[in-house]
Amino acid sequence: MSIVAVAKNLDFEHHQRDNAVQERCSNNPNPEAAKMDFERYYLDLFEILTATCKKIASGKFEPSDSEKLFELSKKGRYPSFLADLAEAFGMMLVKFEAREFQLNETIESLEEAKTKLEEYSTQLERDLKECLDENSA
């Protein structure tokens, strides 16, 4: 089902509790035009969520993108189906960032271990050369 179809199938009266939607709809005396404003509002929210999720999926996101995502996950402020999607993507983002942090820590630890092994190997080579030089003299 397309986003437009989902938006049109929303229970208009039920979701009209949202203050922002009420304000937009109450300023328009024509009920059909008000419903179109309402639908446009939800389509705009979906577009924001979609654009934000695409940026996150590409790995090229900024803190403001995660802020948008967590704003959209507010269940009392936005429709529950949209808030649930935003919350799910937010949890994926948190898990992604945690794994990325853990991987960076592991890489740093491995690089430190590599440096120590290289130093130890260099020292062993020097000791071996010294030992061979003493035995050959």
Strand percentage lies at under 5%
Annotation field: number of helices: 6
Query: Stretches where pLDDT falls below 50 for ≥5 residues?
Result: 1-17
Specify the biggest β-sheet: none
Q: What is the number of strand segments?
A: 0
- How confident overall, as mean pLDDT? 80
Pairing-aware structural class of the strands and helices?
Answer: mainly alpha
Task: Report Rg.
Answer: 29 Å
Q: What coarse outline follows from CA principal-axis ratios? A: rod-shaped
Summarize the structure.
With 137 residues, the chain is mostly helical. The chain has helices spanning 3-8, 12-15, 19-26, 31-58, 63-72, 80-136.
Please characterize this protein's 3D structure.
- The structure is a single chain.
- The chain has 137 residues and is mainly α.
- It has a domain of 94 residues.
- The protein is built from six helices and no strands.
- Helix 4 crosses helix 5, helix 4 packs parallel to helix 6 and helix 5 runs antiparallel to helix 6.
- The longest helix has 57 residues.
SSE layout and pairings?
Layout: H1 3-8, H2 12-15, H3 19-26, H4 31-58, H5 63-72, H6 80-136
Helix pairs in contact: 3-4, 4-5, 4-6, 5-6
Properties at a glance:
137 residues; mainly alpha; 6 helices; rod-shaped
